[in-house]
Structure formats: C-alpha cells, structure tokens
Design a protein that fits this description.
This protein has five helices and seven strands, in the order ααββαββαββαβ. By secondary structure, the protein is an alpha/beta fold.
Length: 189
C-alpha cells in the first residue's frame, strides 16, 4: 500500500508539472517559485533510474536547493547534485546527502521506483510514437499498433507497402529512450 501511495504521489507530481500552463517565470517570487523548483527537482530525481528519490529529501530556499538523506555511494551523491544544479532557476546546491556503503534501502521500494520510471518512459514512448505516426502524411497510423516494454517498441498491424513499413520502423528506432524495435508489421497485398 505504501508503494502505491508513493507512485500515486509521483504520478500526481509529474502530471501537475507537465500540465501546468505556466512556467516559473521572472514574475514568480518567494515561496511560489521555490515550490515550483522543488517540484521540478523531485520529478527529475524520480525519473532518474540510478537514484531512489524516496531516500532523497529536497528543499528549495530562495532558489538554493538543499539535498539531504542517504545514498549508496559518492557517484549517486554527485549525480543528485548535478541533477539539481541543472534545473533552470536553481541558483546553488547544498548537497548534504550522506554516503553510506552499508546503507540498505528497501529493495522493493528501489525496484518499484525503477519500475515506475521505466513504465513512465515506456508510456511516453508509446504515446509519442502514436502521435508522430498520426501526424505523418505517409503513414496510415490507425493501422499500426505500438507497444513499449523496457524500451523495446513492438510495431504490429498492416501497412500499404514496404516504404511505409520502413518509415514506421525508422521513426521508432530514432525515438528517444527506444532500446530496440520489433517489427511485426505486415505489408498488405
């Protein structure tokens, strides 16, 4: 139940940040801007499969990010700091993460976090490819089924000719976060 709550919170955070009609601009100040930046940082940490963001606490104070909590090694500490440093609007990072080689995080939580991150990428790849196919004049997008599992895209359905088939496969191969493409498209006679 706890993992469900964590994943639900993560989905809510991501959805809020992606659908917000405005970006933190120069007119935003104080706590509102800090809250926006904290949400962006939490999302960036969540989507990084190398970190368990549930073990990293973030706080933004006047544009300065403060990271606390525990990580497994120095590489994870440095990575979290770099992610924070690369968020537009964050002016400085105080990386107070503790490195503990003996630290054991809850393997199921770590696994769920990676699963959520991977599932998020898979969903966005599938949705993005469907939209690209639909927008492309040379494809009958409604005839192409797209599914993504662990970065592997599977294309199924009927296409008019080999050119359309090759185009769909190449578009999928060139899409961000795609590891491989399984071509199960059939050229209709």
């Amino acid at each position: 139940m706890m993992n469900f709550k964590k994943n639900a919170l993560a989905v809510l955070t991501i959805t809020t940040l992606m659908t917000a009609p405005v970006m933190a601009n120069n007119s935003w100040q104080g706590e509102a801007k800090d809250a926006w930046l904290d949400g962006k940082l939490e999302t960036a940490l969540l989507l990084n499969t190398q970190l368990n963001n549930f073990n990293i606490d973030t706080d933004i104070d006047n544009g300065v990010a403060v990271l606390s909590g525990q990580v497994k090694n120095q590489t994870q500490k440095d990575l979290a700091g770099e992610i924070a440093n690369n968020i537009e609007g964050i002016t400085d990072v105080k990386n107070n993460l503790t490195v503990d080689a003996n630290y054991r995080n809850d393997d199921s939580a770590d696994s769920d976090n990676k699963s959520f991150s991977r599932a998020w990428h898979d969903m966005t790849v599938t949705a993005g490819l469907k939209m690209e196919f639909a927008a492309h004049d040379e494809l009958e997008a409604s005839e192409i089924s797209v599914s993504t599992d662990n970065g592997v895209v599977t294309l199924k359905g009927n296409v008019k000719n080999a050119t359309e088939k090759d185009l769909a496969v190449e578009m999928a191969r060139g899409y961000d976060k795609v590891v491989d493409v399984k071509d199960q498209l059939v050229v209709a006679n």
